[in-house]
Here is the input.
Amino acid sequence: KEETMDEIEALAYKCRVAKPSDTVVHSECAFTFFTPFSNERGILVNLHTFAGTVPELTRTSTGGDNKEIFLRIVKNRVAKETTSDEAPTKLALGVQGGFATEEDKYQVITKHSIVVLDGSGEVLAEMPYEESSKSLFPEAVVVSAESIIHHAGLAVQQDLTAWQDDEEIPVTKYFDNLPFVENGVTISPDPKHWRCQKSGATDNLWLNLSDGYIGGGRKNWDGSGGSNGALDHFIDTGEKYPLVVKLG
Here is the structure.
């Protein structure tokens, strides 16, 4: 442990404190899609540059062959035993009867450690960084690590831990007596199979809710736009099937 701490203390002078205006990459690797959840090695955040990478790419982020000091961040999701299996009964998030949030479903276990790598990316020293061990580290290391752990990171996300749609949804007058045609038509769940039945176009498509007809959108005055297939079908069928929904 003494040798390990000697390696850490020797690099304490490199540690910087991340300010709110600094770019801190601690939620995913700066070069890949790996996150602290990806595997047991997590990501390493340089305590001088604040760049977070997978261990294999630490030299890319530092651009040198010297020793560097990092904060390792490893996270795991553990399912909560109290998670309800009841289906949502309303359009809401994080409230009773609504959809469960990630916080409702899982407990996130986070582990930190201070790591020293040599120029080739080999680990020279690593010590767990937790409440019980903080007093063992140089103050510069502690302050730097804490500033990274509590930094907002690249994106400040809106807090949506609880949300409910209280807006009244109006019902169209055409819904009450909307006819349904038993014609055996089924709509593929694969968008690649959707085409205007008039022109064969694959974009700007509308599905008729009565008979399953797929038609193109309105044609503009100058001839641009859709094939007008959906509107033409409405007229050709005696204007009996007025409701359509946009596909895609």
Summary: The two ends are 59 Å apart (CA to CA).
